[in-house]
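S.,

As promised, the flavin-adenine dinucleotide run. Input:
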Amino acid sequence: MPEPNDLHDITIIGGGPTGLFAAYYARFRGLTAKIIDSLPELGGQLTAAYPEKYIYDVAGFPKILAKDLVRNLVEQAMAYSPTVCLGERVQKLEPSGEKRLRVLTDRAEHWTRALIITTGLGMYTPRRLRGSELFEGKGLYYTVTRTDEFRGRELLIIGGGDSAVDWALHLEPVASGITLIHRRDQFRAHEENVRQLVNSTVRVKLSYKPKELRGEARVREVVIVNTKTKAEEILLVDAVLACLGFSSELGPMADWGLELEGNEAFQVNTRMETNIPGVYAAGDVAAFPGKVKLIATGFGEAVTAVNNAAHYLDPGMKVFPGYSTTIMKRRERKAQNKQITP
Ligand SMILES: Cc1cc2nc3c(=O)[nH]c(=O)nc-3n(C[C@H](O)[C@H](O)[C@H](O)COP(=O)(O)OP(=O)(O)OC[C@H]3O[C@@H](n4cnc5c(N)ncnc54)[C@H](O)[C@@H]3O)c2cc1C
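Predicted complex:
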């Protein structure tokens, strides 16, 4: 069989933190690597859901903004120039001979010798406010990508979970005023944050839900209704942030014949291998006993997946490559010798 065009050693589906680090590590091991992501930007959940939030539990960073962590991960990964395909939704996988996999997206076909699935929560979409599609891009938000968009605005936040409460606290110094409504009479958010919220300037209205968004060029007012008394009120607003959670699904990947854990993850062994030879999973989408879904653990799983994939592709390659400190020194010396030798 002729070599397919553009065959890569490792293709990584998902450009979140796990996929980005996997791409870096694959190139570090001398393998060709490609990342495919359905979103227009790299960074996974960090870019899509919380770019302006601080993360406190990534080793080596006492505190780092999600978007800054993504910037560093992208810089590290791109130093070795992997192929990056954005805006492509992976749909089909076809094992096509010895160490040959054909991956089909909604836009193209890709050939790879091994595959690492780092699709996190899968197709990650915010739950939408029914009947309010008209206001998307006109003052109705589901995520915050730039805090500055809310500067000086009168903001309504809808929701009672961690995300709604966190954003209310985070945007309090930025917005001109914030009202937070929640349809229940209790929050589902972290107690300490709820305590801070109660002591903040945010106007909290429990047992209220939105009934209608109104406005022309932009949302200007929201009719809210008390879930107990059915009494209605009109709030004048410049922006609405609906924190109703995210729905996620494996999508067509659920039908690839991979062993599933519930409906949201793929089972892997200690080498991060799935039940299909040459197909690995890491990060939030990988399931094994004792699994912890965190950025920090995803990094380690990415390294394990790449190193085992390297050994699978070429049994002469060790699973443990040695330390980067030693390897990079050796590479630098080799490059210097090449320059000196005429
Ligand atoms: C609000 C919030 C706060 C958080 N705070 C923290 C924190 O403080 N510390 C921490 O460690 N973790 C935190 N997390 C969790 C953390 O973001 C995840 O553990 C991490 O993003 C997982 O990384 P990942 O690369 O495995 O997957 P993801 O970040 O989910 O990236 C997966 C990527 O795969 C892509 N994808 C999915 N399906 C397809 C497909 N079919 N085709 C192509 N591309 C596809 C997606 O578009 C996405 O870009 C938080 C999460 C949220 C939502």
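Residues 128-244 form a domain with the FAD/NAD(P)-binding domain fold (CATH 3.50.50.60). Residues 295-313 form the longest helix (19 residues).

- D.
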